[in-house]
Structures are given as C-alpha cells and as structure tokens.
Amino acid sequence: MVTQQETVHRVDPVRVAWRLAGEEVVVLDTARSVYFGLDRNATLLWQRLVGGATSTELVATLMEGARVDRDRASADVATFLDELLRHDLLQRP
C-alpha cells in the first residue's frame, strides 16, 4: 500500500525576517524590501509555518484559534498559502 505524505510548508528563513507585534505579525521580504502585515488569524497560521506545518495542521489551528468551520478554514488556509508562495515567502518543496 502506498501512502502519500502531505507537504510540510515552512517559512523561508533566508528570505524572511518577522516580528510579533501584539496579536499581529510584521513580515519583511528581505530580497525585495517589502513589508507585510498579518492579522490575528494569519498570525496563528504564520507561527505554525515557522516550524513547518501541513495544510491539515493549519486547518486545525485555524478551526481552534479562530473558531471557524472546516470548510471556511480550508479555504482560508489554501488562499493564505497561495499568497505566501506567490510572494516567495515559503520554502519550495
């Protein structure tokens, strides 16, 4: 039986500098000198991504921390990961 492992997403520590500011995170793309501000829900996900997390783990984090249902959490996680990848803020598998 073949099992497929889920991708572990991780913030790119070479390209990204970040700081927690209250309940939000400020992210600096050091390659482009561009800042991003993350709201409370995105901060929940970001903090998991620093150490590495799968989409399933991120969905569970959002469901618990933001108290949203699985469908909403799944859609929000997919959108967030797409945006981070589009801006090259995550390590590529």
TrEMBL record:
Matches recorded under InterPro entries: PQQD, PqqD_sf
Name of a matching Pfam family: PqqD
Top-level division of the source organism's lineage: Bacteria
Name of protein: Coenzyme PQQ synthesis protein D (PqqD)
Provenance organism: Micromonospora nigra
Source taxonomy: Bacteria, Bacillati, Actinomycetota, Actinomycetes, Micromonosporales
